[in-house]
Design brief:
Two copies of one chain form a homodimer. Chain A is mainly α. In chain A, 67% of the residues lie in helices and 0% in strands. The first copy, chain A, has a domain of 143 residues: Tetracycline Repressor, domain 2. The radius of gyration of chain A is 21 Å and the shape is elongated. The N and C termini of chain A lie far apart (77 Å).
Chain lengths: 220, 220
DNA sequence: GATTTATTAGACTGAATCGTCTATTAATTC
DNA sequence: GAATTAATAGACGATTCAGTCTAATAAATC
């Protein structure tokens, strides 16, 4: 087998003009993502204009369309960024071996509540927001949003399997089913908390769900 | 106390010109409400234009602004209409004494699923949709939407109290708490079903919730 | 039939929408 | 420094938005 051509096409041309900066390092792009997350978690996709984001980010329109193909492409980038951030939050709680499995889930919900409180419960979950807007969104969002939720659920399934192995949750329920139920309900709780501008729905759902799946503590 | 003036002001003037039709009987108004519900349950408030609704309803703009003060007023009318419709559906299931209390809840979820299936799972719950959009809605919607949910919950509380009195659900949980948890989660399930375009999330949540609150059937 | 009010009819307005377009500036190679 | 590509800059255009406005039609009283 003769090496007719280099296998790294990126290596063959010395690239003439100004080199492209690292895909994510661009300051303008980062500012846009940050401003986009702030606005879309609060108001959703349809009712937020690009100009609004440009103004908040202090970035001109030329830069926006240089870094993104359009609003939809930007939206998908926001979903990816949100997923990346949120997944690390989940892992930080779920993989913390200092606590028992169920305590980790509780801690996650408490931190999530604190996060919402930080913005007066006006910002919700980007995935929930866009999911609700699917009827008005380009269809590519559907698979993206579903995949994100499945990722969070997979992590939750592992946590609940551990809890079940340790006997702290009910044995007759599939951990994967419980994890799915948790995320279905949790998204509902975030929606409701945003509607009522208070933490009660988050606590209500977390408390009840956890109490229901816990094995009896024989607490008098 | 002398009766200085008639207590029914509607009775004192014979009213000259064309009489106002019954507030709800107006055909144009009904068509607008119907078209509005179809569009808003699918795409939400922000991304549906008034012209779009006019076209679907076959009603000119003059009629719209004759019957409603503006888009927000129209939206609130839709919430009221949706609540009226949905409440009768709930009562029809929850007050049916042919079935045991928990069976009535199950029947309700199954009918709701059938309702969503009828439109290919593209239409969600109007209250959930608008709740998610609160960040972009006039603030009057907040109280309206919250009140609607509380109404549905109150009915569910009565049902679960009955179930508890009959010993078919766990005794250590407040029916009101369980009802709230149900609606928090159910809204999440509807959102998820709309996102995935399939009934699975509805079934998943209903099944798991019901199994968790049921007292042991000692099933084998 | 004249008058009065309800309702329908849709052209029009000004602001906002997303996206395009032409420059200009920056960073690199030759 | 000339050439080349990346990135910034924002004016501009076509379309859509909610809402206004004038006029026409309908249904009643006098």
């Amino acid at each position: 087998m003769t090496q007719t051509a280099p296998l790294q096409p990126a290596n063959q041309k010395p690239r003439r003009g100004r080199p492209r900066g690292a895909p994510d390092a661009s300051e303008a792009r980062q500012k846009l993502i940050r401003a986009g997350l702030e606005h879309l978690t609060e108001k959703g996709y349809s009712s937020v204009g690009i100009d609004e984001i440009l103004k908040a980010a202090g970035v001109p329109k030329g830069s926006f369309y240089h870094h993104f193909h359009g609003k939809a492409d930007f939206g998908l980038a926001l979903v990816a960024a949100y997923d990346a951030y949120f997944t690390t939050q989940i892992d930080r709680a779920f993989l913390d071996e200092k606590h028992a499995p169920l305590d980790r889930l509780r801690i996650f919900t408490e931190r999530a509540e604190a996060g919402m409180a930080r913005h007066g419960f006006r910002r919700g979950c980007l995935v929930g927001n866009l999911g609700q807007e699917m009827g008005a969104l380009p269809d590519e969002f559907r698979a993206a949003l579903t995949a994100v939720l499945e990722g969070w659920q997979a992590r939750t399934t592992r946590l609940l399997s551990l809890a079940q192995a340790q006997g702290t949750i009910v044995p007759h329920h599939d951990p994967s089913t419980l994890a799915e139920t948790f995320w279905i309900g949790w998204e509902g709780a975030v929606l409701r908390a945003k509607l009522e501008l208070r933490p009660d729905p988050l606590r209500r759902f977390a408390d009840t769900f956890l109490r229901l799946i816990e094995t009896e503590t024989t607490d008098t």
